[in-house]
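Duplicate of earlier report; NrdH-redoxin input re-posted below.
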Amino acid sequence: MHKVLIYTTPTCVYCKMTKEFFEERNIAYEEKNVSLDEKATQEMVEKSGQMGVPVIDIDGKVIIGFDKGKLSELLEVE
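Output:
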């Protein structure tokens, strides 16, 4: 099983798309809302160098934005 963490904000369309992608494929994930959690914001920036969301961490590999192809590849799903 993969360790999946997504940094989000409530208004982010691409965050919602990413979560729907995970849910459709029964991928368990942890979500951190960076608009409410300053520590999560700092973690996200340290991992990605970015302030934009979503930032997705899959087994230590970081994806910035909703990249369906890269998500599929790292999670070994279609």
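The chain has one domain: 4-69.

Merging into the original ticket.
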